[in-house]
Amino acid sequence: MFLALMVALAAPADWIPARWTSTDPASLDLLRNTPINCLIVERTSSLAFNKKAGELGIATLGVVRPSDQTSELAAGASAANLAGILFEGDFDPAVLAKTRAALADSRLVSIVLAARTRIDFHTNDPVVGTHQGVWPGINATDEGESKAAPSGAPWIDTNTGFLRFARASTQATIWMGHHAPAKQVIPAARYVQAIADAELLGAHWIIDLDADFQNRLLAKEEKATTTWQRMMATLAYFNSHKDWRALEPHGRLALVQDAESGGLFSGGILDMISVKHTPVRAVPNAKLGDEQMKAARMAVNVDPSLLTTEQKEVLGRWTRAGNTLLTAPAGWKMPRQRTDQITIDKDDVNKLDQIWKEVNSMTYRHNLGVRLFNVASTLTHLAGTPDGKRLVLTLVNYSDYDVEAVTAHVLGKYTNVTLHAPGQAPRKLAPFEIEDGTGVEIDRIATVATLVIE
Question: Which of 16, 139, 397, 454 could form a disulfide with 416 if both were Cys (CB 3.0 to 4.6 A apart)?
Fold first, then answer.
């Protein structure tokens, strides 16, 4: 019966996950006609619940943590009609490898949510993930005003810098497994932002509802239901445009970086560049080659000491072709990331100002793919086809109010621009010619908007 149910399930790389604490099969009605097709359940999940989920085409993964009896719980996964196990936390590598091998023999899926510093980007697993993430949104001071980053822009708590590096490091689908803040009533917009923060870079946040919201949702309270529908509309929007997710990052600025030089941090150099709406392509050291640098005209080499002789020769050839390379100041080092660390320590944030001033000076007033105006509370991602004939520019607004009168100056001549947004029909916009490319205006953005530029 279990194998028969598995036939109806999507492949793990296509799973859209959510945490689910209810054990009542009737609660699954909330997932009908939504993109969610994978539930992370506790060991209390019932056989009847898991069976019903399977009948609806929803995979159930039992969560196992390091403090649990790992082998015992994993062994019971098949009997419980689970599709597999989600290992969440930092396990003994030998125990984890042995348990996962046993699951594979039983044709059960296993997915690992590790610390950022322990993610295996070279695995053949269809999904990799981390349990470490920041809760997205504009970071405010105690007085309610938004904090400023070293770049001068509002400080947006986001996982997108980490995800830019992670997406460049692996072909696997990436899951962000961080929890909703405890003991807080979270506005609907913040849940939508949490979804969009991951989906912007083609990853998935494992949806996690605060206890109050979940109880109200299960009780079918009207306001909770409305919030849920808005969340699902945003998720469905991204899921209906999988072709966008497959596009490569587009732009003329490359950041050569590795895990040892800050690629796994939130609030690092990638975030500082992207918060100024400069399209940037992460180039992990291990993937540095002539092809990866071909489209770039400017680049930042964060830590030259980590490059091999061959990798340094790649950058040498690239600069001799007339391109501009910024190397970190002599003796400058990104702080070493601890296993329990997500963001850069407060004292180290000021050190980033040393390299940020140089990056800003190099890129200031240059159009490296797109320039945006009146978007202080947003983050963006520019992707495109290799020939640049089709670009997709997605904007996520992290404020609690709509952004109005946004202008984008796209490098290159384009004649066809279509605006997409969740719950809205696509709308043609009228592009106009500017000195170095094409201009387009967006009248209003609620939380998410996408320009398809051709």
Answer: 454
